[in-house]
Amino acid sequence: MRIRSVEKKEAEQLRVIGIATFEDTYGSLNTPENMKIYLEKNFSKKQLLKELDNPDSKFYFLEEQEKVLGYLKINVGSSQTEYCLDEALEVERIYILSIYQGRGYGSKLLDKAVEIAKTAGVKNIWLGVWEKNLKAINFYQKNGFVVFHTHIFKLGDEEQTDLLMKKVILDE
């Protein structure tokens, strides 16, 4: 198993994995119209290329035997989806294809985010997780994250509540 940076030429593969994972996780809990709006906006090749070009956003593929199983997206500085904490790194996505879930791969990507945060010298890692995604909430709690706030996440025309969770990496 290895974790490596995603290259611009791999934007289409990133798009396919992002859409598949998002649909598997949230499709049955949302309207097809709202899913379509969200996926077209956030997982277009144009949008992903823009994010891949951003020096404050990084994507990492998780591979095993040359097969991509999922990916990690992190943001720092002004690329974070919102300002929450000083000296922080945001984990925007940990997406593992459904057939590979439950095998510890999410933990490997989270460990990579922690390693990057420590190397960068940031104090906190934070993320947003939908309040109805109990599987993800439990995963993050088991990995030392605690809820510190909420925010509204727009999925199409629906407003949903995300729990903002953080993990202290470097104590003051």
From TrEMBL:
GO terms for molecular function: acyltransferase activity. Signal peptide: none annotated. Keywords: Acyltransferase, Transferase. It comes from the Bacteria. Its EC number is 2.3.1.-. Gene3D superfamilies: 3.40.630.30. It holds the Pfam family Acetyltransf_1. CDD domains: NAT_SF. InterPro entries: Acyl_CoA_acyltransferase (IPR016181), GNAT_dom (IPR000182), N-term/lysine_N-AcTrnsfr (IPR051556). Residues 1-170 form the N-acetyltransferase domain. It is an enzyme of class 2 (transferase). This is GNAT family N-acetyltransferase. It comes from Aquimarina hainanensis.
